[in-house]
Amino acid sequence: MPSDGSRHRRAALTTAGPAPRVLSPGSPPEDGPVLERLADAVTASDAPQVVFALSRHGHRSVVSGGTAPSPPLARENLRYEIGSATKTFTGLLLARLIHSGRLTGGEPAAALLDGERPAAANPVTLAHLITHTSGLPALPTGFFLRGLPAWTTNPYARFPQARVVDAFLRHRPRHRPGTRWRYSNFGVAVLGHALAAATGTPWEDLLTDQILRPLALDGTTLRADDSGLDAPGHGRDGVSPVPAFDAGGFQAAGAVRATPHDLLTFLEAHLDPGVSPHLAPALRAVRRPVLRRGIGHRHVHTIAWFRHPTDGGPMYFHSGATLGHQAFLGFRADTGTALAAVCTRRFRAHDPFLATAYALLAQG
């Protein structure tokens, strides 16, 4: 799917410090209020590099800016680390494998990762892993101790695939899988390795073949390189540089890095599954609720998204963060709106970025 040109009219505006500067004065008048809201969001985010990219019925409005000087390449064309928002890609991948008949979601993960392991009475299944009901903790036992030497740089890199799988196979849940919800990077990381084992395909290749290539997400990858396309991250002070994120054995939980335009393409496919017949059943499946929790069951989950109510209908969203980036992805079918927001400053106390992005989508 193209990201601009024939399919989209694109309005762009950039901010340099506190004062916005319009880069495309020929934008239609109706773009004005949208651009102003996005510009306010960029300024409120208070980060070195910020991009807010919004699509409404296929018409894209992109605003970029930040507290740092403009990089050599336009901010909207850089790749940003999306952290846990990667789980929306992993959830779609699982849905795709289920709807293609290759998996059911009920497969025990341990059996896929260790074929000689006896079947457990209440095994952790692939469905448990993606819905955070596996009983696994947020991170595996030993993660903090092993990651401590690189805690401020790349702790996940010190916990490769073999350690993730071994920690899972050794883990003894306190509660029966499927009975309690607990957000777990560990669980989704295990899911990625289980999908790779089940299909005989490395997770990176699996994601590329099944999701990235069908959606023409050419600006999306799983690791930084020396191309100059990766936006550098920054610490909580917004100044200190942070190394590029290395997900180690947690690729399925947080390795994706992408351009804002690719993220919008990904979100637009959820709003209009028909644009990708290969993925249409999976794109519809990841919008269906599979779990409700909390007071009044306000917190609704699909296999890929958090879902909250609005006056007009549900909004689907997921956020993510690494040691130097933050991201927010979301969409609303009732208004035909998709929002991809990224910034290059580590999450801090009272950080405005995620709240600003959430409010923008909630407003419709």
Automatic annotation (TrEMBL):
Residues 1-32 are annotated as: Disordered. SUPFAM superfamilies: beta-lactamase/transpeptidase-like. Its EC number is 3.-.-.-. Pfam families: Beta-lactamase (PF00144). Transmembrane segments: none annotated. PANTHER family: D-ALANYL-D-ALANINE CARBOXYPEPTIDASE, D-ALANYL-D-ALANINE-CARBOXYPEPTIDASE/ENDOPEPTIDASE AMPH. This is Serine hydrolase domain-containing protein. It comes from Streptomyces tibetensis. The lineage of its organism: Bacteria, Bacillati, Actinomycetota, Actinomycetes, Kitasatosporales.
